[in-house]
Design a protein that fits this description.
alpha/beta; Rossmann fold; 7-stranded parallel beta sheet; 8 helices; 7 strands; globular
Length: 266
């Protein structure tokens, strides 16, 4: 997976899966633009890339604001002249609560980042890729976009929407040399899963983690590098005729009928 001379733009690039992808793209020779609403975290990612001899810049942006999305795209184009790979990754988990009890403001916040943020990213990146006649986009969905998870209505709805946006955009731009796919992580060893564990059992998150991992066929959470590897593959020439798909990396969770469910079952 050679990305020499290519430019990779990554939202949610300040930590977790986004940072792992940034380091992977850089290791393959790409120039990296790390975008995050936490500018310090984005700069830390860019700094690690530069320490390893790569070329990277950081941009602070709120992905729910069209002007800020337009601005991060402009920074990438002004600095590097093109965008070859766009990892549209920023997302939040919201709260654990049943639909009948779910807070409307939290629902709006989750949909804003996870759906509007993904839409705006494609809305402003796609014209650049159309202009250059090539490009690969990977949107971060989830196994929650394929199955239901009681207690997470906003997150599940948002990730189903990401898959719909992915398929729609893929059909629109395939003849223009652009591919659009979604990666669907299962439980990943990041801040997000640990925050959910703590919500479910405050002060005893470790017991929740042990139970969830024991229920997975592989017996463990996926690592951020394993998700990043799928993203890199989908952006590479090895996936040259792959578009409009959703690619699961979940330790066998969905293969066994979604063993890790009922996060907030009554």
């Amino acid at each position: 997976m050679d990305f020499t001379g290519k430019v990779a733009l990554i939202t949610g690039g300040g930590n977790g899966i986004g940072r792992a992808a940034a380091l992977g793209f850089a290791a393959g020779g790409a120039k990296v633009v790390a975008v995050d609403r936490d500018g310090t975290a984005a700069e830390a990612t860019a700094g690690i890339v530069r320490q390893k001899g790569g070329d990277a810049i950081a941009v602070t942006a709120d992905v729910t604001r069209s002007d800020e999305v337009r601005a991060y795209v402009k920074v990438a184009i002004d600095r590097y002249g093109r965008i070859d790979c766009f990892f549209n990754n920023a997302g939040i988990e919201g709260k654990v609560a049943h639909t009948a009890d779910y807070d409307e403001a939290v629902f709006d916040a989750v949909m804003g980042v996870n759906v509007k943020g993904v839409f705006l990213g494609m809305r402003h990146v796609l014209p650049e890729m159309i202009r250059q006649g090539s490009g690969a986009i990977v949107n971060t969905a989830s196994v929650a976009g394929l199955v239901g998870t009681p207690g997470m209505p906003a997150y599940v709805a948002s990730k189903h929407a990401v898959i719909g946006l992915t398929k729609t955009a893929a059909g629109e731009v395939a003849r223009q040399g652009i591919r659009v796919n979604a990666v669907c992580p299962g439980p990943v060893d990041t801040r997000m899963i640990h925050a959910l564990e703590e919500q479910l059992s405050p002060g005893n998150a470790g017991a929740v983690a042990a139970r969830y991992q024991a229920a997975l066929p592989t017996g463990r959470y996926t690592t951020v590098e394993e998700i990043a590897n799928m993203v890199l593959f989908l952006c590479s020439d090895l996936a040259a005729n792959t578009t409009g798909g959703q690619f699961v990396v979940d330790g066998g969770r969905t293969a066994t009928g979604g063993a890790v469910t009922n996060l907030a079952a009554r």
